Amino acid sequence: SISSLIQEQIQWNNEILQIPIQKIQDYSNSLSNARTDLENSIAEQEARGAGKTIEQYKAMQSMSMRQLENLSRQKEMLSSLLDVYDKDSSQYAETQGKIQEIENSVSSLVQEQARWNQELLRIPIDKIASQYDALSNARKDLENSLSLQESQGMGKTLEQYQAFSSISRQQIQSLSQQKEMLTALLDVYDKDSDIYSQTQNEIQGIEDSISSLIQEQIQWNQELTQIPIDKMKEYSDSLDSVKSDLKEFMDTQNARGIAATPDQYQQLNAITLAQLEALKSRKEMLTQLMGQYSQDSDAYKTASQEIREADSAIQSLTRDQYEW
Description:
By secondary structure, the protein is mainly α. It is 87% helix and 0% strand. It is built from 7 helices and no strands. Helix 2 packs antiparallel against helix 3 (90-151), helix 5 (194-255) runs antiparallel to helix 6 and helix 6 runs antiparallel to helix 7 (298-323). The longest helix has 62 residues, at 90-151. The radius of gyration is 41 Å and the shape is rod-shaped. The model has no long low-confidence stretch (mean pLDDT 86).
């Protein structure tokens, strides 16, 4: 019948109109499949502990851009069909539904693009952060070794202080690079966005870490400067022990009626001279060290007290010399 032929003609016309749209849809599906394959490959890579590469981000972005272009063409063609269909027809409603699906897909792809762009910008920052983590682990190993060493009654060596200082300088350099890169990102982000606020907090955390490392550096430098002073004190204490033993021996001899010999007095004098030299050297080191401290600091007060004790010991030893 004529009615049946008209319906067939309408159906064929509709299918003809759908042909270019379907071709674009097929191409878009192939892009989506290729992208899914890449996403699966990246997921396997990340499961092994490896992050995305710049090349992979660029491949994802390229596929996404082509998908957006195809979706835009699909939407444009489908929108033109709305002028052909009766607004009350099922084809019109179906086409509107397809257009809505496309708009949802476009919105999703745009959001993913924005996320990938943010992740892409962070790749060099994250690489430096990984280097910082490696330095932190190396420093932790050194700290554990020192804790074990100190639990056995041994102090830090000059080489260990230098190793600490080297790691700390590298950490500060790494953090400074991260801060510089993150600060540059603030110019990219919207000031009212969450990512802007998160980046500001990250920068603040880095500044706090740098400040802490600098304070530690100052403390280590003070302890490093203190090493020769402490060694000089140990040497002076050992001389005092030897001298006490000699004086005790001489006192025992005197109790038995044996007078001290000239050699023994010469030994006492030689030890005393060595003590005086050690005390004067230590006092000089402490005086130089005081110049590095604030007068209100505990370190300054401690050094000042040690200098007074050294002066008192020098005066006492000088009197002993006159008595002999």
